[in-house]
Amino acid sequence: MSKLPEDFSYVLELAKPPTVEEELEMEKMVRHALQINDVDELKRHVEAGLRQNYQQSVFISHCLDKIHYMYAKIACMENRVVQPKPSWFAKLFNRKS
Is residue 7 part of a domain? Predict the structure, then answer.
């Protein structure tokens, strides 16, 4: 298995497994859905679940983008790159008239 780059180690921290309580709550919701006899009600539940899943996926994606951007910003602040000053020769030719 390849090692995860240090910059992405926060992803593993965010992907912790659910607690026992969360798993039991999910099981309760699944069992409730399996007992639905009305096809139209089941369709509404499926539609709501798909829409919620999509919105959460978009939200999570944007959060991870922002987290990665902030990590990059911190890295730039910690490892400043000093640009060399232009030589007198470069200054001579970049002079505005």
Answer: no
Is 73 a domain residue?
yes
Q: pLDDT of 5-40, one tens digit each?
A: 666 666 777 778 889 999 999 999 999 999 999 999
Question: How many residues are recorded in the chain?
Answer: 97
Q: Supply the pTM of this predicted model.
A: 0.58
What are the C-alpha distances in Å from 75 to residues 4, 71, 86?
Answer: 18, 6, 26
- Going by C-alpha positions, the residue among 16, 4, 13, 10 that lies closest to residue 74 is 10
**Residue located via tokens 């859905």:** 33
Angstrom distance (rounded) from CA 58 to CA 55: 5
Q: Where are the alpha helices (DSSP H) in the chain?
A: 9-14, 20-34, 39-78, 88-93
How many domains is the chain partitioned into structurally? 1
